[in-house]
Fold:
Amino acid sequence: QVKLLQSGAALVKPGASVKMSCKASGYTFTDYWVSWVKQSHGKSLEWIGEIYPNSGATNFNEKFKGKATLTVDKSTSTAYMELSRLTSEDSAIYYCTRRRATPGDYWGQGVMVTVSS
Amino acid sequence: DIQMTQSPSFLSASVGDRVTINCKASQNINKYLNWYQQKLGEAPKRLIYNTNNLQTGIPSRFSGSGSGTDYTLTISSLQPEDFATYFCLQHNSFPWTFGGGTKLELK
Structure:
């Protein structure tokens, strides 16, 4: 069955970077875009961007350009998102999800990122 | 960016009630509208895609409708497991945007 398994929670210092992973299984990784979504505590959801593993093509929310970097490793069916220059505003849960024609049929379990000194 | 205004933000209802949740887009989104359910501590789960298509495995008491800028999620007869938060998502144009959420609580 389809699974998106995300890496564990992270506690990082302000100004640092964090890289999280999303390992796909149960489907052909290169056939689906992988999107990333932010959920701040008690708030709604924000779409960060997406990457197409087959080509590396990306689409980004302008708000997250310069903040998020998306990459993939096709050999391990894993997508990565790195967030840089972290501030308290980046503390949130981050989800990966996939899409083919329509987004978000399967989601990872989420990664909680806490930015604190 | 397309703004998605979801209403109500909170909804109190009883088991067996029929409830509706609305999303209004700031411009025409051509029925590219999905609905998600999220329970505390869990990832969102897709219920409906492209306005009115029921996700596999989702009970038929959930349905969606709408066009243009106005969309509705209906739960025909609330079950205990339906008390959760619901979000809409427009995927007509980048950046995709979510509604602010509706928290459905037991009255």
About this structure: Chain B has a mean pLDDT of 97. Residues 29 and 93 of chain B are 8 Å apart (CA to CA).
